[in-house]
Amino acid sequence: MNSILEKIREQFPALSQNSHGRQLIYLDNAATAQKPQTVLDLISKMNGKINANVHRAMYELSDIATEIYEEARCGVAQFIGASRKENIIFTSGCTAAINLVAQSYGAEFLKKGDIIVIGADNHHSNIVPWQLIAQRVGAEIKVLPVTKGGEYDLKELESIITEGVKIVAISHISNILGVINPLDAIISHSHSVGAVVLVDGAQGIVHQDINLSSLDADFYTFSTHKLYGGTGHGVLYGKTELLEKMPPFMGGGDMVDTVTYKKTTYAPLPLKFEAGTPNFVSAASLSPAIKFVEAIRGRGSSWLSGSNKNLQQAVEAEQKKIIEYMFHALDNEVGDVEIYGRPGEDLENESFVDKKIALFSFNIKGTNSSDVAQILDQLGIAVRSGLMCAEPLLNSLGVTGAVRASFGPYNTIDEARQLIEGLKRAKKMLY
Amino acid sequence: MSINEIEQQIIDEFALFDNWLDKYEYIIDLGKNLEPIAEEEKKEENLIKGCQSRVWLVCKKGIEEGESGENRLRFTADSDAIITKGIISLLIRVFDNQTPKDILNADLNFIETIGLKSNLSPTRANGLVSMIARIRQYAKEHLEE
Q: Closest chain A residue to B83 measured between Cα atoms?
């Protein structure tokens, strides 16, 4: 194994455990990522020592907790290129962030007959919130299709996103297809018809640099736990002028200015949307989590001894190797495999690696994904199977489930090879 | 044979396997050999939909037999996943042609003994837990008749 990857892996204690008596091979990173020691230490410190409610009290410990919480917010703003930290709303997860926009912005600005466009590759959490608000206000839902290669079909933009569309809710990268979507074209076209755009970045932020001062998305959402941080926490980025106009989504403590029994005035952004005690532990964990992400992208202060550029090179080279190998081995070594999300029709086309993340959803023809996953599980390999919270997309692909192997930056080509061996064995058993 | 006797028989069969591979191959074989249900029985009302696999369960009242003249229930089932189907075949073996009372009294401890407990955990969403619940529901309805 590459010695730098080995060192990175040492920082993730969850990776060095057994499953069914074999070394665990964790390939369900799109569901949740493992956490580095720096994140685990911070979580332990927040729970064990700096445990005081944020924004509420006049004593030192609460001040420290609040400071760490707000530092994390500044860190996120910087990480995604938001102009102000007030653009960053902390929520209980990516799902909650999307629901917040649907319920607050949607309820305030949608009228009967308005159109909401959702991406065909959206996760249920970027479908159902829109159906709920559409039903409530009498809006209509339209779907932006994806091409055979697995990205949004830009040829359909003008026919789907028309006058009358008020909200466009899409995925940066689908949790099934793993293809990087052409956001700029969709955002600029949507703006030209007067629609606002929400981008679900749950998978995107993990694999792509985001700069919201150039990417003109109105809302961008993601989960902390998929980005190597704590669970039960997520982020909503929103443009200031939109967040200012939106009414609070939930009422409670910390979101108010003055309260009387008759009327309440609300706290300024971002606290207007953060009613109740926030998950300040997982929020704080974003700081070390982002440091790790910056490090494997070759930036920031040295994460392991040595230059972060070395980490970046090691991780990027391994991911590229994994992507090329997986396409080749699924086709040629396992065989009879249908892969969902294959940008560019042929492998000769060099650009496919740039459009694809190391996430592979597929079926061995004639087998059920849960059978394959259970056999892999016995071999210590953790993959997802079934509908994966994207039933409409899988239906449109004509299947009732798929196997998904999603690799993290700590996964290796060797693990990919063992996955392929496992799949060969599963195929032999099931055929 | 009583439910307990069948469960013991299954436990004895599984005691022969000392590794997961043989065990899973056996379950897969059971799945492949389970008589599929007729296509027309694969309708919505017989469907138990899990996120991982789908299960179809058909319950019919058996003929009256035995000294007590009790009703016995006949079950047939199918799945689109072969391991699930193999486990279904074990469950059918246990529950088919038993009285509603015996079905409701069955403790199904054999599942844990043969090492398939995780396959029947509610979180697996493969339809098996709901299938057992529906079998019990049928038994209850027939008991009340």
A: A371
Closest-CA distance of chain B to residue A23, Å = 16
CB A427 within 8 A of CB A48: no
At residue A389, the pLDDT reads 86
pLDDT tens digits along B32-61 = 999 989 999 999 999 987 778 889 999 988
- Identify whether B51 is a catalytic site residue: yes
Q: Does A429 contact B126 at a Cβ distance shorter than 8 Å?
A: no
Residues in contact with B28: Cβ distance below 8 Å, sequence separation at least 6, in sequence order: A371, A429, A430, B82, B83, B86
Is B20 within 8 Å of chain A by CB? yes
Q: Domain A41-292 falls in which CATH fold?
A: Aspartate Aminotransferase; domain 2 (3.40.640)
Q: How far is CA A394 from CA A355, B16, B51, in A?
A: 21, 40, 12
From A368, A387, A429, residue closest to B24, measured CB to CB = A429
Say if residues A210 and A242 touch (Cβ distance below 8 Å). no
Q: Contact B28/A430, CB-based, under 8 Å?
A: yes
What is the structure's pLDDT at A353?
74
Chain A touched by B80 (CB under 8 Å): yes
Distance CA A146, CA A13 (A): 38
Q: Is B129 on the interface with A (CB under 8 A)?
A: no
> Which of A73, A106, A78, A297 lies closest to A218 in space, CA to CA?
A106
Percent of chain A, pLDDT > 70?
98
Tens digit of each residue's pLDDT (9 = 90 or more) over A193-244: 999 999 999 999 999 999 999 999 999 999 999 999 999 999 999 999 999 9
* Cβ pairs A/B, distance under 8 A: 46
CATH number where B79 lies: 3.90.1010.10
The model's confidence at residue A346, banded by pLDDT at 50, 70 and 90, is very low
B52-102 pLDDT per residue, tens: 888 999 998 876 555 555 689 999 999 999 999 999 999 999 999 999 999
pLDDT at A358 over 60: yes
- Chain A residues touching B119 at Cβ < 8 A: 374
Distance from CA of A237 to the nearest CA of B (A): 31
Query: In chain A, where are the structural domains located?
Result: 3-31+307-430, 41-292
- Among B16, B21, B51, B63, the active-site one is B51
- The one-character DSSP state at A370 is H
Taking contacts as CB-CB distances below 8 angstroms, the residues of chain A near B80 are 368, 400
- So what's the architecture of A3-31+307-430 in CATH? Alpha-Beta Complex (3.90)
Instruction: Characterize A384-417 residue by residue with b for buried, 16 or more Cβ atoms within 10 angstroms of its Cβ, and e for exposed.
Output: bbbbbbbeebbeebebbbbbbbbbbbbbbbebbe
Condensed to tens digits (0 to 9), the pLDDT of residues A123-164 reads 999 999 999 999 999 999 999 999 988 999 999 999 999 999
CB-CB contact of B71 with B98 (8 Å): no
Task: Tell me which residue range forms the domain holding B33.
Answer: 3-144
Tell me the C-alpha distance between A183 and A100, whole Å. Answer: 22
- Check CB contact under 8 Å for B82 and A375: no
Mark out chain A residues that contact chain B at CB-CB < 8 A. 20, 367-371, 373-375, 378, 385-387, 400-401, 429-430
Instruction: Spot the catalytic one: A389, A397, A405, A419.
Output: A389
Q: How many domains does chain B contain in total?
A: 1
Nearest CA in chain A to B125: A386
